[in-house]
Amino acid sequence: MSTLSSVFDLGDTLGTLVTDGLKLSPGNPTFLDARDGILLALDHLRDQHRISPDVWKAVRKAAWEGFAHFGMGSHASSADADLSSAIADTSLPADL
Asked: Which of 14, 56, 70, 84 has the lowest CB atom count within 10 Å?
């Protein structure tokens, strides 16, 4: 497989991941609801054997690192979609 094909396959998978994640999020989601939906969509890709367990593990780790970098770590919280209620956190889940 060429590098260009790999890039397009990765882009399709990431696009699917985000789109499916948003579909799994409630209406008017908080950033954390969207984060959780994206992570759930990632689990679904693994459960449907569309990605291997090794890829799932690597993507899950990268996703959490990205979320944590922007304050949406494992202990972040938000009462509603209003950003004024958000409490940032940069920690990663212990099971990574």
From this structure: 84
